[in-house]
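Hello,

I think I submitted the 2-phosphoglycolic acid job twice by accident. Can you confirm which output corresponds to this input? Input:
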Amino acid sequence: MKNIKLFNMNIFITDDYEQMSQKGAEVITDIIKQKERPILGLATGGTPVGMYKELIRMNKENKVDFSTTTTFNLDEYYPIDKENNQSYYYFMKENLFDHININIENTNIPNGMAVDIEEESKLYEQKVREIGGVDIQVLGIGSNGHIGFNEPGDVFEPETHKVSLDKQTIADNARFFSSIEEVPTEALTMGIGTIMSAKKILLLASGKNKSEIIKKMLLGKVTPHIPASILQFHPDVTIVIDQDAASELLK
Ligand code: PGA
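Support: Only one job matched these inputs. Its output is below.
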């Protein structure tokens, strides 16, 4: 594993996906051990699944305790029923919550069934802000540079809001559905300001298809056309990527 420092960013380049998952889990458990009531910001998608498996293993071996942990997820499709196996609520239960000693009442995910979407966004934003921002926010990165579902655009959206998903995101996420027509076209997401209120950021990426965007996000201009580029302005960012995702950066 290589370690590079770039301004505020501590970058770990791992040999492979498995090592990325282990390093990610280590960064999270370090925070959990430091705090009496840790608050985690969590992400869905293919990337963090291995890290969640590692956290489950550590929990089963009594190496980490989630009994006082609270979580806030980044986003949820809209509209979607909790029980739908494509919902992020379902994903989190399947991939983490059902297998660790967390109190499910302390887990928060935007409500994909909310009737009043404006109100749901406002309440979710308030909840995150009231606790003073999460202790650590886990992020993946879209191949288009999105974080959460903050898609490329002309402005950085500050707060939790409803979005229309980018064509690229729909195409990327089609692999989880039986056809591209089934991918929801809208979602609720924390805003860029919500994400930036986290005390620490942990961004994970794996695979060659992330290599171009990783380079742009770290070395390019800060612009809402590459939402993840804003992380150049966050004071405490840890980036854990495998060699494939780092391949353009290292050229
Ligand atoms: P992925 O998604 O982990 O499935 O590649 C990342 C993201 O869209 O943030």
